[in-house]
Structure formats: C-alpha cells, structure tokens
Amino acid sequence: MELKFDRIASVLFLAVGVLFIIGSRHIASSSYGSVVGPDIFPLVLGNVLVLLSIRLFFETFQNKNKQENKEKLEYKPFIIIFIATLLYILTLESIGYVITTFLFLFVCFQTMERSKWINSLIISAAFSGLVYFLFVEVLKGTLPGWPIWFS
C-alpha cells in the first residue's frame, strides 16, 4: 500500500478513535440492570484504534526506504462489505443480533473467499451464537434478541 495513504489513514483512524473515547464518556455506565454498560465497548474500541493508528503512523516512517509494490485496489469487495455494514446497522434492532450478525459475517466471509461457503456458515453461526451467549448469559449484558415474528 502507498505510504502516503497509510499515513493519512492512520491520522483519520486516530481521530475516529479519539472520538470513540470521548463519545463513550458521555454514555451512561450502566443501563437496564446490565453489569456491562454500553460505554465499555466504545471505550475499548477507541483505545485499540488509537494504539493501532499510532503504530501504523510510525511504521510508515520505518518503511520509507523499502521498495513499494503497487497493488490493484479492489473496489467491488469494499462496496459489498460497506453495503453489508450499512444493512447490518439498519436491521440490527428489528431482526436481532444473532440473525443479523450471522448474515453480515457470512456475506463478508464470502466476499473475501467465495469457495469456502460451508466454513463461512459454520464460523458465522458459531461466532454469532457464542458471542450472544457470552454477552447475555455470562456477562449479563443486553443485546437485541430474536425478532418478534421468530418467537
């Protein structure tokens, strides 16, 4: 990837990470009797994003002398995953976490590697079910469950 692009992307990701951290401070620490509050995930995500963007920024200076290989940008997978992300955000509350996460992961896995659809099905189902179980049952958090029409 182009070093200039990486440098600009690292600064943008740093800004997004800082905004996540600031935004998480304005979210109530607990809701609906949940042990894990809604502020934890954005705070952790913001911290991880800030650390990774700082690392990327410094790596661009270390790799300055290495010869760059021009890679062809793949727009089609980006657009598919971007649209899948938008649909995931829009349908999470109405369809529920397990189904939307399963569909989102399946579409993303198939976009990246089409030939292994059985592995994509298994991993998507296991991940969405396991995360739902761990977050809701073990950590006593709240996630959108199953849709009304499914019950």
Summed up:
Helices cover 70% and strands 0% of the residues. With 151 residues, it is mainly alpha-helical.
Q: Your description of this structure?
A:
- Helix 4 (97-112) packs antiparallel against helix 5.
- The mean pLDDT is 81.
- It contains 5 helices and no strands.
- With 151 residues, the chain is mostly helical.
- The chain has helices at residues 3-25, 40-62, 75-95, 97-112, 117-138.
- It is globular, with a radius of gyration of 19 Å.
- The longest helix is centred in the first third of the chain and has 23 residues, at 3-25.
Provide the descriptors you would attach to this structure in a database record:
globular, 5 helices, 151 residues, mainly alpha, 70% helix
**End-to-end CA span:** 48 Å
Question: Order of SSEs, N→C?
Answer: HHHHH
Evaluate the radius of gyration.
19 Å
General form: globular
Distinct helical segment count: 5
Strand composition percent: under 5%
| Main β-sheet description | none
The amount of helix comes to 55-70%
The averaged pLDDT comes out at 81
Uncertain spans: none
Query: Structural class, please?
Result: mainly alpha
Number of strands: 0
Summarize the SSE layout with pairings.
Layout (H helix, E strand, L loop, with lengths): L2 H23 L14 H23 L12 H21 L1 H16 L4 H22 L13
Helix pairs in contact: 1-2, 3-4, 4-5
